[in-house]
Design brief:
With 191 residues, the protein is of the alpha+beta class. Helix content is 32%, strand content 37%. β3 (71-80) and β4 form a beta hairpin. It is globular.
């Protein structure tokens, strides 16, 4: 059994590596995702840009509504050192939600982490994760996005299975959105 899993993992790894080289987004949902309101996983993309360019785009909260689908508004409420309080409003034809997250920057390590701030308005029960930028030898950057969300069961029951699948695919596809933005004409302003 162990050898079978190792062989399958190696095949999956080679497929994912080929997909990244082909410019695609790789999504890997956690096995425990879609259970009792928990959703989580990782998305990766190779972006044809220096990590500083991507970092600058990730901190340009005023453009999130253009970069990420269904994002209505992202506003920086306060900043202290490497910590920022951010209000994020996500809209969808069926429902919308607002959450406050604390973002912490560690530019040296290429990590922008986030977590829900429970004493501010929030429609989710929990959200945490991070962006991680890995510079590559060829001048590109491997962008990883890791996220875990705890949604209230009322929301889970309202959304249904089809929309649930679309939402998690979109969520884990965020590295592709930042790739398209940075590699497009808008990316010039971050260089």
């Amino acid at each position: 059994p162990y050898e079978d899993k190792a062989a399958k993992d190696k095949v999956r790894y080679e497929k994912e590596k080929a997909a990244l080289k082909a410019g695609k987004v790789v999504r890997q949902e956690l096995e425990t995702s879609r259970q009792k309101g928990f959703y989580g996983g990782t998305g990766w993309a190779i972006v044809n840009a220096d990590p500083d360019v991507i970092w600058n785009a990730l901190l340009d909260f005023g453009t999130y509504h253009k970069i990420f689908s269904n994002t209505e508004e992202v506003k920086e409420i306060s900043r202290k050192g490497n910590r920022r309080l951010i209000r994020i409003t996500i809209g969808h034809p069926i429902l919308g939600m607002t959450n406050h997250v604390e973002m912490r920057e560690n530019r040296k390590k290429g990590v922008l982490s986030f977590k829900l701030v429970p004493n501010h308005q929030h429609d989710l029960e929990g959200i945490r994760g991070y962006w991680r930028l890995f510079p590559q030898n060829d001048g590109t950057t491997l962008v990883a996005y890791v996220v875990a969300i705890d949604a209230p069961m009322g929301l889970v029951n309202l959304v249904g299975k089809k929309l649930e699948g679309m939402a998690i695919s979109s969520l884990l596809g965020l590295p592709g959105d930042i790739k398209a933005w940075v590699e497009g004409p808008e990316g010039e302003k971050y260089k």
